[in-house]
Design a protein that fits this description.
The protein is mostly beta strands. 7% of the residues lie in helices and 37% in strands. Strands 45, 46, 48, 49, 50, 52, 54, 55, 57, 58 and 59 form an 11-stranded mixed beta sheet that branches. Strands 3, 6, 7, 8, 9, 14, 15, 16 and 17 form a 9-stranded mixed beta sheet that branches. The protein has a 6-stranded antiparallel beta sheet with strand order 38-37-36-35-32-43, with no helix packed on it. Helix 4 (404-416) packs across helix 6 (439-450), helix 4 (404-416) packs across helix 7 and helix 6 (439-450) packs across helix 7. The two termini are 57 Å apart. 42% of the residues are buried. Residues 1-21 and 768-775 have low confidence and may be disordered.
């Protein structure tokens, strides 16, 4: 934290001398002028005059300059602004914007304490003198709320409350050049020492490329700045070497909602019959035919203006406005294509509408900007070029490359589409046209040609024709549907989204989980056009903040996400509207390997961890564990099973003595029902579908999440496993810390004893009451780096149920 220190020796020194070597007070005999600059959070911004107070600037033309005069007591000062011949005062000492004001004379002005910051001799806090004992929390000069707010007060120890007094060069001259020609010369009473080229004046749509000397320096009063263009388009050398553009106008026209949404534009269009320029409403998309009378180029420069040519009109015609002036009769006249070579060099001016890439045209000597107006107030298609004295929306133009609308339509498919043959089986969203033969490769080649620097009209048309076929096929692309089951396959890391085995409230990605229960995702309708996304019976939470894991939530949680699904063919995004909506609300794998969390992040239009492929989930596989001549597993799943292959599924009801379970074979199992699998294969394959309710009672239950066990709760469960060669349900031993997700167990309170046998058609498994050490021994196995292992190597060291073991 920054601390305030009073340099007592300096505070008792003469107020007409140097103060810490940074400023010197002025009096009737001497004058010392300074620019006051922020060197904290608003580093590089100088104080400037704005309205009845001060604001911030980085431009030499706007900087305010000050003298420091001795006050009525040691350590107190008056600040005199030489830029407007007023003293600096304040309304009150409370914190807030706009507190720093002007006073017409010293008598009515309030005084200031200029306090040196700790460990600095040239950085100060400027504090109202009415504050008797300033400290870190005292009100100090600060652009409260940030740069752009009027100068006010905030805590002295805030980073943005740090100021310097920069000395000046007096009576300086700045010569402005473009293409080595002098175009302006400006005289300055004061220039702050240290000002760089970025502070120097430039014309519209130019920047200061170089300054000689490079910065304002003591003793140097002559400076030269050289301008370079910074145009909203690429200018042309001449008509024959033109860079052609489409151009629209009045793109924010409030009278037409189609224009506001961008579906229609008022496009500059040359009409040869009367050499006029009209602006018909035009739907601009990849199907729009671009004709030569819609193409324009600009020959000239930002300093002298541009001649505006139309491709259909030819090289002898340029845009011209015959009358110029400061009244409607002269200013509000038509701009048309003409062979007369005057009044045809239009300069560029910024728009006041905040329209991205927008600009306005105006001739020298004219107060009226080129503007679009309707000749028939009731017909939007009668707009022509006239004049208006404001740089508003009606005067604002934008240019587009002729290939823009085709390229914009094709880009998502070029960047994001992946053929089904490159994805796991069952990918949805396929585009039948792009899947056929080499069509995708041809499409990508056409896109590359139509977006290259030297593209031709024919190449753009070829891409447009292909886009029609792609879009026709897109009408039949599939997307996710509520109630169906899927797996999300990350487009970049080529892994399946799944529940983290070691933290069931989080998700990760794992390449081996393509048939796992914990990778099955389903969707439920939420708000209109949005879904709740669920896995393992829990709901995806909302994006909280950057790089923080999205958690899985219960039904009654207020932190559930609300996801909008969008896709380009086989590539999908999932955007959470329940969070503080941001460009980083897309479901994203943080790409940190097997340990990566699923978080919220941005989607930038190219394959990244924020893009996913959606695979239909039709089945799951469950590992079976050998015991004798059979193989076994238990299961508890968050979805219905309609069929079981390579094993037989059993549910079970307790016998009268509650010491055995009578097992009943079934071909289907409802969701959230415990059951046992018996077979001879290494894996059982369970089809996700629909199942009727189990008839009778079923003593087997379970959980879709890990169930933690403690010494206090362990005896509450009997878990499926083997003890002394016998299959049954047993009390887990003290070494078992959790029952794995998706496994069946029995509530111990429902039975007698600490173990229970299984009765398969009058064949009862042998059993005793000993506790089982590892519960079900087909719990997931991981290597020491945390990766799941499906085929452990004998003698290897692994982790199962949170414990190390040697296989």
């Amino acid at each position: 934290m920054k601390k305030i220190t009073f340099m007592l020796a300096l505070l008792t020194a003469s107020t007409t001398g140097a103060f810490a070597g940074t400023f010197t007070t002025s009096d009737g005999a001497t004058s010392h002028v300074y620019a006051i600059k922020n060197v904290g959070g608003a580093n590089g911004n100088y104080v400037c005059i704005k309205g009845t107070g001060f604001n911030a600037t980085t431009k030499a033309d706007n900087i305010a300059y000050f003298k420091v005069e001795a006050g009525s007591a040691d350590g107190q000062y008056y600040l005199y602004c030489v830029s407007n011949s007023k003293y600096v005062s304040y309304s009150d000492t409370g914190k807030g914007a706009g507190k720093v004001t002007f006073a017409d004379d010293k008598t009515s002005a309030k005084q200031w304490k200029i306090v040196t910051e700790s460990n600095a001799t040239d950085k100060f806090d400027i504090i109202p003198a009415e504050i008797a004992s300033p400290d870190n929390g005292s009100s100090s000069w600060n652009w409260h709320g940030g740069v752009g707010n009027q100068l006010g007060f905030y805590d002295a120890n805030d980073g943005s409350s740090s100021w310097t007094f920069d000395a000046v060069v007096e009576n300086a001259t700045v010569t402005v050049k473009f293409d080595s020609n002098e175009i302006d010369s400006k005289s300055y009473r004061y220039l702050a020492i240290g000002l760089a080229k970025t502070a120097m004046p430039a014309l519209n749509y130019t920047t200061v490329e170089t300054m000689v000397p490079e910065t304002v320096a003591a003793g140097t009063t002559a400076y030269t700045v050289n301008l370079a263009e910074n145009l909203p388009f690429v200018k042309s050398e001449n008509f024959d070497k033109a860079k052609w553009y489409l151009m629209d106008m009045h793109c924010n026209d409030s009278g037409n909602p189609d224009v506001n949404s961008g579906r229609k534009h008022y496009m500059w269009t040359y009409v040869a019959a009367d050499q006029d320029v009209k602006l018909p409403q035009t739907v601009m998309n990849y199907e729009t035919e671009i004709t030569d009378n819609m193409l324009w180029c600009f020959v000239g420069d930002a300093v002298n203006g541009f001649k505006i040519y139309n491709k259909a009109a030819g090289s002898t015609l340029t845009l011209r406005k015959a009358s110029i002036g400061n009244n409607d009769a002269a200013g509000n006249t038509a701009s048309v294509m003409s062979t007369i070579d005057d009044h045809n060099k239009f300069k560029l001016y910024p728009t006041t509408e905040g329209i991205a890439n927008g600009f306005c045209f105006k001739l020298d000597g004219d107060d009226y900007y080129v503007n679009t107006q309707q000749t028939n107030p009731k017909d939007w298609n009668t707009k022509v070029l006239r004049g208006w004295n404001k740089t508003d929306g009606g005067s604002t133009c934008r240019v587009f490359a002729p290939n823009k609308f085709v390229a914009d339509a094709a880009r998502p498919y070029n960047n994001l589409y992946v053929k089904a043959s490159e994805l796991p089986a069952g990918a949805i969203g396929t585009n039948s046209y792009l899947e056929e033969g080499n069509n995708l490769e041809t499409f990508k080649a056409q896109y590359a040609a139509a977006t290259a620097e030297d593209y031709t009209t024919e190449q753009v048309k070829a891409l447009a024709e292909t886009m029609k076929k792609v879009n026709d096929a897109a009408a039949n692309e599939t997307t996710v549907k509520a109630g169906k089951y899927y797996r999300l396959y990350n487009a970049q890391d080529k892994k399946f989204l799944c529940v983290r085995a070691t933290n069931n409230a989080q998700m990760t990605t794992d390449a081996s989980m393509g048939k796992a229960v914990s990778s099955v995702v389903t969707f439920a309708d939420a708000e209109t056009g949005r879904f709740r996304m669920m896995v393992e019976g829990k709901t995806f939470g909302k994006r909280i903040q950057d790089n923080k894991a999205i958690t899985l939530e219960e039904d009654n949680s207020g932190a559930k996400g609300s996801y909008a699904v969008a896709h380009t063919g086989t590539t999908f995004t999932f955007y959470d509207y329940a969070s503080n909506v941001s460009d980083r609300s897309y479901l994203h794998c943080n790409n940190a390997g097997d340990a990566g969390n699923v978080v919220g992040w941005e989607a930038l239009g190219e394959i990244s961890p924020s893009y996913w492929h959606v695979i239909e989930a039709t089945d799951v596989e469950i590992d079976m564990t050998a015991q004798g001549d059979k193989k076994y597993a238990s299961a508890y799943l968050p979805f219905d099973v309609s069929n079981v292959a390579d094993a037989t599924a059993y549910t079970g009801a307790l016998n009268a003595e509650k010491n055995a379970i009578d097992m009943t074979a079934t071909t289907s199992v409802p969701a959230n029902t415990g059951f046992v699998l018996v077979g001879t294969a290494d894996k059982a394959t369970l089809t996700i579908g629909t199942a009727d309710a189990i008839s009778g009672t079923n003593a087997l239950t379970g959980s879709n999440f890990n169930t933690a066990l403690t010494d206090a709760t362990r005896a509450n469960y009997l878990v499926f496993g083997v003890n002394a060669g016998n299959v049954g349900f047993y009390t887990p031993s003290s070494s078992v810390t959790a029952i794995p997700a998706n496994k069946a167990y029995i509530n111990a309170s429902a039975v007698t004893g600490s173990a229970i046998a299984l009765n398969f058609g009058n064949t009862v498994t042998g059993i005793n009451a000993a506790t089982i050490n590892n519960g079900e021994n087909n719990a997931p196995i991981y290597d020491l780096s945390g990766r799941r292992v499906w085929a452990p190597v004998k003698g290897g060291l692994y982790i199962q149920n949170g414990k190390k073991l040697v296989k």
